[in-house]
Amino acid sequence: MGLLLGLLLLGHLMVVTYGHPVLEAPESVTGPWKGDVNIPCTYRPLKGYTQVLVRWLVQRGSDPVTIFLRDSSGDHTQQAKYRGRLHINHEVLGDVSLQLKTLEMDDRSHYTCEVTWETRDGNQVVRDEIIELRVQKLPASKPTVTTGSGYGFTVLQGMRISLQCQAQGSPPISYVWYKEQANNPEPIKVATLSILLFKPAVVADSGSYFCTAKGRIGSEQCSDIVKFVVKDSSKLHKNKTEAPTTLQFPLKTTPTVNSYWAWTTEVNHYLGETNAGQGKGLPIFTITLIIFLCCMVAFMAYIMLYQKTSKQEHIYEVASEEPATRTSGNGYSNEPSLDQEYHIMAQINGDYPPLVHIVSLDHELLTIEDKSVC
Length: 374
Known about the structure:
alpha+beta, 6-stranded mixed β-sheet, 6 helices, 29% helix, 29% strand, elongated
């Protein structure tokens, strides 16, 4: 009989515990004054239970006051004091924690997390948990130093980078940056902000840095020393691309097109590397274009010279053929006639004055022929 009662009690506890959703929340939470706090409140979603209502209440006097409500219409902040300061998680099902920003001393109170579910048969199940919120003025914790954008503490010159000092505690927290000196045990103050910005970083910025943080209460806290190194990117690039000072071109070349182009490509490639080491290198495309234009100019000059030479040879051939005997189509000869001999001899002897009009050879031959026919 006792065993039966024990089993029935265990079954009832299992139904109560696992048959309905159960809220989980701590008894108390401590938040920093002027800081933010998260008041946890979660449950494990169960099949057949649908969340329909979430409420957060705060104890004011003897009665609790609703400060937040989430229903089918959305989220609603019920008190003007909390508008813009509270947020309820809605991204994860089963997490209805309260996030309260910029805590004031009068925010200390008891907060109630209340969730309502609806079952498949239309019944509603309500669960709530009460959490005590404590607000304290917390001193600044030991600060940590990180770099912006996830960079390490060794960077290249010219980069825009920052060192960030962060500490926990009640704001406001004041920060001071220091840089250690090689020949002086006393560090120098370089900034009074939480972020030390280098825009851009130079080699002279290399050194050992640390920061301090101090809140309204408590003593000043000091971070660990970090070694910040800025490398000269120009020297690094020069070491990788440095070329010999004396140009050594290939001595053995053959008069073929392939070897000529191979020699030209090697020389241009070497000159490009040498100029690149000096920061004045020409792109391979530009060098190739210059060589192509030079070849085109040489080819055009060769074509023009060849055409000019061909024309001179043609003129010489025509001139050399003119003294040859030419026979007209009508059977007449180009040999000088008697009248021509008579005129030439008369000019030489000076017996007659020079002829003013010289009749063409063909005209004279035609005239003589006509006379003979008549």
